[in-house]
Write a structure and sequence with these properties.
nine-stranded mixed β-sheet; homotetramer; Dihydrodipicolinate Reductase, domain 2; Rossmann fold
Chain lengths: ~375, ~375, ~375, ~375
Amino acid sequence: MAPLKLGMVGGGQGAFIGGVHRMAARLDGCFELVAGAFSSDPARAHASAAEIGIDGDRSYADFTEMAQAEAARTDGIDAVSIVTPNHLHGPIAEAFLAQDISVICDKPMTATVAQAESLLSAAEASKGHFFLTHNYTGYPMVRQARQMVSEGALGNIRIIEANYLQDWLSEAPAEDNKQAKWRTDPAQSGGGAIGDIGTHAYNLVCFVTGKPAVSLSATLRTHVDGRMVDDDARIALQYACGARAHIWASQVAIGNENNLTLAVYGSKGSLRWAQENPNVLWFSELGKASQQITRGGGGGNEAASAVTRIPAGHPEGYLEAFATLYREAADVIRSTGGKSPSIGAQDGLEGVRFVDACQRSSMDTSAWIDLR
Amino acid sequence: MAPLKLGMVGGGQGAFIGGVHRMAARLDGCFELVAGAFSSDPARAHASAAEIGIDGDRSYADFTEMAQAEAARTDGIDAVSIVTPNHLHGPIAEAFLAQDISVICDKPMTATVAQAESLLSAAEASKGHFFLTHNYTGYPMVRQARQMVSEGALGNIRIIEANYLQDWLSEAPAEDNKQAKWRTDPAQSGGGAIGDIGTHAYNLVCFVTGKPAVSLSATLRTHVDGRMVDDDARIALQYACGARAHIWASQVAIGNENNLTLAVYGSKGSLRWAQENPNVLWFSELGKASQQITRGGGGGNEAASAVTRIPAGHPEGYLEAFATLYREAADVIRSTGGKSPSIGAQDGLEGVRFVDACQRSSMDTSAWIDLR
Amino acid sequence: MAPLKLGMVGGGQGAFIGGVHRMAARLDGCFELVAGAFSSDPARAHASAAEIGIDGDRSYADFTEMAQAEAARTDGIDAVSIVTPNHLHGPIAEAFLAQDISVICDKPMTATVAQAESLLSAAEASKGHFFLTHNYTGYPMVRQARQMVSEGALGNIRIIEANYLQDWLSEAPAEDNKQAKWRTDPAQSGGGAIGDIGTHAYNLVCFVTGKPAVSLSATLRTHVDGRMVDDDARIALQYACGARAHIWASQVAIGNENNLTLAVYGSKGSLRWAQENPNVLWFSELGKASQQITRGGGGGNEAASAVTRIPAGHPEGYLEAFATLYREAADVIRSTGGKSPSIGAQDGLEGVRFVDACQRSSMDTSAWIDLR
Amino acid sequence: MAPLKLGMVGGGQGAFIGGVHRMAARLDGCFELVAGAFSSDPARAHASAAEIGIDGDRSYADFTEMAQAEAARTDGIDAVSIVTPNHLHGPIAEAFLAQDISVICDKPMTATVAQAESLLSAAEASKGHFFLTHNYTGYPMVRQARQMVSEGALGNIRIIEANYLQDWLSEAPAEDNKQAKWRTDPAQSGGGAIGDIGTHAYNLVCFVTGKPAVSLSATLRTHVDGRMVDDDARIALQYACGARAHIWASQVAIGNENNLTLAVYGSKGSLRWAQENPNVLWFSELGKASQQITRGGGGGNEAASAVTRIPAGHPEGYLEAFATLYREAADVIRSTGGKSPSIGAQDGLEGVRFVDACQRSSMDTSAWIDLR
């Protein structure tokens, strides 16, 4: 099957997540990158395009121009990946959706709730699809966990615990650290740890449990002098069924690299998973020996198998999980002749609302904010 | 050196912690158990005494009688271990302190703050000492951690995380489960998870960081229908320096046995420790490979060495940590001819105040309670 | 940079390793798969080609025809991946090398020493390159280990321990298990565990230590009734410097999936690595706390960085390591205008000689066989 | 129940294992140490006795005198612990057995086979018992493993793997290291790593599998210049059923403290255990998720429960396992009015024969030595 044609906005020289999206798009052969506006600086945009191997006539310095030009081509792109700083996600996505080109957007969806609501409307109006890359949901053991929870393997959910701990912002970053720079600029990022990694933890909780929270209470803190955004966030979430979730996202927890963990405790059993060794899922039933379920190994279920590429014991990692989202996006794009309802936009809006609610709660002495 | 003479109140047939105290008292040969009031039921008291190998004339059914009789003997006990349900700790301890007999008391000190304050006064007035067995502080790697923090190895403390997770109360316990029964009776225990294990986590935080908290906010919850006490507790603690601690104590976290963990994050480094594999301490400095410090191995410090019995790689466990407290109690009793200031009573009072503050906060929508 | 053009022989429907090679070839965008002889059965070959997205005119049922046809095209393939059963590697590789097309061959190089020697000559005579995919050498932490050993971080090497444990052949396989079938047919595989996974362990030892062994003693055993090849192999290797290596490869070690581990002990320190969690390397210096070096994290060296795609804590896995070999092959193919000396063929010959020596040793009561 | 009266030979100031035996004897209250010949140097013997708290009239400088004097007392010792260098075990044990005093002897039983055979005869002739402290067999999870193997949980045993890795002799020890000194003196130890720790691994294999080996092939090596004994030993053991065991004992494996591990692979399942975290036993059945059985937790069996003191998750360690052997010795001494057949002596003889066979095999180019 011939690959779909993909464009990219952002992700030029010096960027991190652009390269990740390119590898993820390539891994399963579902997409071929053929166009890009890799930077708003024309020289850098074209240099990046040349390096990546994009034809000169499909290298753009302006995303609006790119959206129009690609829409006008008979061999124009089927989808565009957006990998810019957060505050540009909305305008760029809307520009492509307006041309009925599908959008695969890095998280969070936007930097503000207003942008997210506007984007949601744009997605609903477009013949293109909107996909948000909450990449951790692509891990097979996360899929396994979701199926087990939905099948009732844990009984009634009581407690959910999601931590995302990093340490790379434990000190004020060097001046030339581009990644750190835009992430710690509130105008560009829309938030600090809460937006960068807290949203991942929140999305993971939503994805695995399938439950909408009723309300939240958050405490955002900043440990590094002079930093304008939070670098450590604690959130409690209340559910209608009585369950609670606790999220801790920190970028100053020395000794942690990308230590995203999830634990779900129910009345009958529990599941525990850690992103840094993602091929393993611990399952405990009350009164029995704990089991180590492995990707591809004994105890695996259909949801995990469906996104497993290689045999048990040969680790799949971050890029494979990311690639799964690209593969699933390709499947949707290919399978929906007419327009299906927008898929990732509602999730994306909820993520941005979560960040907003956390910020409001934290400024109001951690008051409980209704999420309904 | 001849062992000190020890008595015990509580810990008869069917009890758990009494046996632990007896093993801990024996391990280093510092104490010889010679008297006891092992139960308030005379038949059970004497049967237990016989089983344990206590002479009939030093088996008592009443602790007041025991305190007076032992004080009157020339070969009377030097110290008494109190291993009854929590609400009896205060009266029993006072009875022995009134006779100038030292007291080694299981935690929490008492079931109420009023009892604790009364006991503190009694301890100050007595020629005997008061010791509280916060046994996890006896682990060599906990001592190592305390020394490292006090020496500044972590820089300024930012975040402290202590979890104590169990699962043995995930369901309503069987009728004949004596342990579960008194622990879930508020009149006997003074609290549920918060008093039983939350106090351990709090004490561990205090012990390792040496910091007094300014205020706390707590949420106590009960997940099992019909239970009269909390089985899951979350506490945030604020420190004057800006640091925060978070404690999570749960008795319904399936898959956890006695999963007490401590992590301390500072501006320069972090320490992480887990009680279930207690001979290991993780130390991370920003930008360097994390190190696994082992009891008795490379990287160990004086505080750890002082309480280490056997070489690295031969695990010491719970009983050794407990025995360290007995050995240290023996050293104090032997070394202080005259009366030294009371040692464990202030800590004990703080522990009971902690439980009380948590209960008050939780009932008042997790309001912040001043601890000063 | 435009991708190189790649062909493939083998790897059609029902095969495992073909899909792995395709993903590995795609990940970094260095190769584009444009031709293939995916099966010796024409119907299956063409059906596979269609599924993979290969144009009909470049789908072949015969590898000789494919080599000639591709060599004749102006847009012919730059390299071919060989992913057939072992006994066909030699003839196919020679057919392509004869056309000066580079070869990327799955291991072991061939099923017999005679085939390997013939192939080595063919590689030397060709303008094409020969690459062998000992894929575990592509892991960043394996590269890290090699650099550390060569820099003397361990002192003089004393003991090397490499285990590769699986359990998928613990029982006689089902009739329709294609993977198990050819691997347990001596005519197709040239050996059992020794050839399938023992060669990987041996290659890893050679790669990390850079030492040629002087002699070996092997014991091959078969634990499943009726099996015609070994399923468990133990090999001792003697080195000129006095060091010894021990290799244990087993396909009947229940509870192990692809548990390949390497430990190197020297006079000053040691390294330990495990493939199932490959982003971590343990480094111990005598008398110091052991360190956990992570891919991309503190303590990493240049060799590891050179093959690292994403930040620390976001796990790279098996496919990334495999893809690194493809990327390195692409670099060689692109950079060598004229013919460089053959690269992987000598290693490949040594691997086949290793299998042969193990089989001879084992049949001769584990006699020591000279490898020089 | 009043404790039994215990004496000790060896274990004075500066010794290691003597203190271990004293703690183990005390932990469960089964023994009271009342007499000792703690050194062959009278001044040191008496100083040690005073420090330990032994009455002056029961402190001896000569073990023969001690045996006779204690036998003559109406309150004489019931048993003696022997914790001297290996070459003295035999003569001392025989002196006490000759007085019908039971002997609890550190391993290995003796330094030579001739001594062991003599001691076996002496044990059979005595009214006292002979116990050998293969202390690792006291771990609850080792007992669990033995029961599971004997019940057939693994099917037919195929492969047994026991490693005992240390690093404390990686360099020539300091002159004043008493422990290292006698252990590396062949006259006192009877062997190096093979006798000191290889015997433990061998005994563990025998204990868990219950199988007598038919023959062995051993390779003993010395990595440190000038050392007179082996510091690294590899042994293969053949069983009548076709199974093989492999033992690796090393004292130069940097990064290992007392890393004793056991794995038993059968046709249906496997068990894996590691002494440094001894409260966990991994159990894998073919095709199922691996289970983590914990001491006191779900999946535990009767053999483990019988030697478990405290609840799951509160780690028991090395001293508890050691104490279990003392408790079991006390039970035997108390329960056998008349003389039961000797218990530990046959095991002890087999251990010494194992060391002797390994040494002979190694000197004869690793020839297979019959053990029957």
